[in-house]
Amino acid sequence: MSGAATGETAGVEWRLAAPLGLTYLAFFAAPLLILLVMSFSVDDNLGGFSLAAWSKFWGDPFYRGVVWDTLRLGLVTVAMTTLFAYPIALLFIASGPGLQRLLLFIVLLPLLTSVVIRTFAWIAILSREGVLNQALLALGLTTAPLNLLQTELGLVMALMQIEMPLMLLPLITVMQQVDPSLSDASRALGGSKWRTFRKVILPLSLPGWIAGATLVFASATTAFISQTVIGGARLVYLPTLIWQQAMVVYNWPFAAVASVTLLVAVLAGVSLFALLGRFARTA
Amino acid sequence: MRERTASRVVRKNRVSLQAPVAPPDIQSQPLTLDAISHSYGEALAVNEVTLEVRAGELIALLGPSGCGKSTLLRIVAGFINQTSGRVVIADRVVDTLPPNRREVGIVFQSYALFPHMTVAENIAYGLEARGESKATCRERVKEMLATVRMEGFADRKPRQLSGGQQQRVALARALAVRPRILLLDEPFAALDKNLRLDMQIEIKRLQRQFGLTAILVTHDQDEAMSIADRIAVMSKGRIEQLGSPVEIYDQPETLFVNDFIGSSNRFSGTVESAGEGAYAVRLASGALWQVASRKRFAPGDRVIATIRPEQLVLTDQATAGTIPVTLKLSLPIGGELIHDVETRSGEAFKVAAGRRPGEPVSPMAATHCALAPHARPILFPQTAA
Ligand SMILES: Nc1ncnc2c1ncn2[C@@H]1O[C@H](COP(=O)(O)OP(=O)(O)OP(=O)(O)O)[C@@H](O)[C@H]1O
Ligand SMILES: [Mg+2]
Asked: How many cross-chain Cβ pairs, A to B, lie less than 8 Å apart?
């Protein structure tokens, strides 16, 4: 594999990788290429060359707003899952095997039901007559029911619960590998609990957080079902836009532009997290 | 076991070469454990341990795996709260203090260096936590690096250091904040034999230099013998015996301590006559030994007499106190000869003797085994096995 490998073994490895490589080429790279070509086409027959779709997309403040909203949805969901995932992960690390099993079950529970069902459950919770509003009214915390459906807040709440396992699993895995005597050492050296978290546990858990943040970001920005069902008609994100353009309006070049944009946006977000990680490690 | 006996001699000499005196400005603090018990759920890990560590003293907690040594150390450091009992540092009960307020330094078996920080950052960690100024930190880091002879490694990450170097950094980090008490949990376990010896000397030197009251956990008896002022032998959550290394070796109070420290031969026998703390004991092999003991026995009591290999000699003369034996094997271990012998009834035991250069390994006609003139067998009641 490294420089020590002979030419012969390198050849064998290459041939072993060929089936997977070809599959990727046929079902991943080729469609992507078609998509890219399509975005520069005049119509959906891949004919002609035109920048019309691109200039229409990026020239219109509405569509630029959709891109920004999508990115922001991803970032806010990452931020909120992070905020809730760390306390849970810390509790997990600190608890005994029995409680750990229970916590892990609760964390994994969302994965055991379909996204559609989970999303509709959130409608029951978030709607004006829903569980959350009734609780808030009963507690006297609000006088009129809050509008949560078709708002970014409601969507982020739902996405946070739906994506939580993606953040928690890598985070817990990495945190479990951190030698517990490191926190003990920090404490014995005079470090408070908060300092121990900030200076020792947090930096050492970053690889797990980066993996989690990447997954949550990619998943939240492309969560078509949750975005459409909870966001409704009022909130439009790139996946919804793509669907509308491709399946309702049949403007395929325009849908292709939105798709490529979404792809680049997700990649940009993901590399941002990777960059953050590298920056944090050298600091 | 045999190797240990030989290396211990070397070790003791090397430690005693260095005897720096503590600087007068350092105030050592005593540490008292008062009837400490701890159970994890149902299981009792530490059972009524009372231990007074004098100011500036190094006590080794010695005992087999799982006897509660680490648990005791973690209680002192404040990582776990004992089920009952008190920890007193310098006349102050510290049970309600969290670990970061106890001023107890600890060095772990795994060193527990922060992997994402440089050596200098590791050493400065405790100082920063105490809110020391940048200048003070820098100065103290430099001083500590010099103390553990690691100048020039300040900017390395822990993974770029060898095991011994990591340990030095761990020590420097613990000592940088000038703790009152130093706890060491098997600090040498991960080091190879030669390095272990160097680090033992190093720790002893630093402990004296800083006037530290220290507890060292180990399950290596040689380590405890060479480095500690006193040894507390633990078994099943209790301290079986507390005493100087020599006391523990020469006058073990229980069979457990006797067997755990050094190698020892056991003979069963019966008390024939008793008088004024001295007993005549008839061994199973027929030999009659005169044994002094502070314990009380009555004629007819079944006892176990133990004797260290180096307190036995081989001879070809039969007397009342000799055991008829056959010599099975002789091994030269460094400056010693270890003879493996067997009684008529098939009990195997060991005899150790100094080896003169040029002396043949297998001695002449050795048909009997006698007590050496200075020998002090120890008696235990038969039931206490
Ligand atoms: N966190 C824990 N939960 C439950 N039982 C524990 C825990 N830690 C230790 N024990 C038990 O308590 C007893 C004492 O453990 P301890 O770690 O103090 O032993 P030790 O003397 O340090 O052993 P070793 O030499 O192997 O390190 C053991 O029987 C162990 O199984
Ligand atoms: Mg231990």
From this structure: 67
